[in-house]
Write a structure and sequence with these properties.
With 308 residues, this protein is α+β, with helices and mostly antiparallel strands. It is 56% helix and 16% strand. It contains seven helices and seven strands. The radius of gyration is 29 Å and the shape is elongated.
Length: 308
């Protein structure tokens, strides 16, 4: 009987071990499922969706208290971020008036024929700096609206070819003045229509063209290529400029980010590419950049085409 018992025990031990392991795994997964939901929700929350909250189960255990604590923390963060956004928008809006008045007074003073050369030079500096500050405030207002996740434009069918032609028409005189060749290539066999806002798309392309104009020395070349394939339109802005270091590429769309000193010597607010990225996002377009130092930079936009 003892031998039969031991043989049965040894034979059933692996089966019992498998059953206990499977049962332990099932119990642990069931117990940790709320933790997985909390982790997944926490990872998905960013500055763009701080209003989301972690799901709370009425279990009365530590997991419920953890979820409630995290939600309270997210609420405080959302309140603080909203205050910063509102302050940025209000300050930018309120400063537009004094800056406009300063530019007007400086312009009137410059028209005074009796002003001495020293005073005229000072008024010119005031007017120039006020103009730069006005551009900065306008871009800060744009990004404040972006942070609010609101877009007051109307998305309608827009021909990308018309956007490219108008933006490049604005950039061509600047390119000629700087000794740069601006080449535009658009696939003419079909209309490339996307759902978007014409003014915003033109502004986004102008940001990319302006970036190429600033960082390309004469004699350089800027190529704008628009093509379509497989229901998608691809817009590329390629230059032969100074390029961007590989360490700077991951941050090129960050606000106020200025790359190496050679690029920082060029005047700018550091907000243009951040605005371009936001405009691409509201149009559900993919904006990417590839660059090599001293060989040039290529920005690429990929849109989904729609029926005209």
């Amino acid at each position: 009987m003892l031998q039969s018992f031991w043989r049965a025990l040894l034979a059933s031990a692996p089966i019992l071990l498998l059953i206990s392991s499977a049962g332990g795994y099932w119990v642990s997964r069931r117990a940790l499922r709320p933790v997985d939901r909390i982790t997944a929700t926490a990872r998905s929350i960013s500055i763009r969706n701080l209003s989301e909250r972690i799901p709370v189960t009425s279990s009365g255990d530590e997991l419920q208290r953890l979820a409630e604590t995290c939600n309270a923390m997210l609420g405080r963060l959302e309140s603080a971020v909203n205050q910063i956004k509102q302050f940025t928008a209000d300050a930018s809006h309120e400063l537009r008036g004094p800056l406009s008045f300063t530019r007007t007074v400086a312009g009137v003073a410059l028209r005074n024929p009796h002003a001495d050369p020293e005073s005229r030079s000072a008024f010119e500096d005031i007017a120039d700096e006020a103009a730069k500050a006005a551009v900065l405030l306008e871009e800060m207002l744009t990004l404040a609206r972006a942070d609010a996740v609101t877009f007051d434009g109307v998305l309608e069918p827009v021909d990308l070819t018309a956007v490219v032609e108008e933006a490049c028409g604005m950039a061509r005189p600047l390119a000629d003045a700087r000794g740069l060749a601006l080449e535009v290539s658009c696939a003419s066999e079909q209309w490339m229509t996307v759902l978007g806002d014409f003014q915003s798309l033109r502004r986004m392309l102008w940001v990319l063209l302006d970036n190429a104009l600033k960082y390309t020395d004469s004699p350089g070349q800027i190529d704008v290529v628009l093509s379509a394939a497989s229901g998608q339109a691809t817009l590329m802005v390629r230059d032969t400029g100074i390029g961007i270091a590989q360490t700077d590429l991951p941050h090129i769309f960050d606000r106020f980010y200025r790359a190496d000193p050679s690029r920082s010597q060029v005047e700018g607010t550091g907000l243009g590419l951040a605005i371009a990225k936001w405009i691409a996002e509201i149009h559900h377009a993919d904006l990417s950049v590839a660059s090599e130092e001293r060989k040039g930079t290529t920005f690429q936009l990929v849109f989904s085409l729609c029926d005209a």
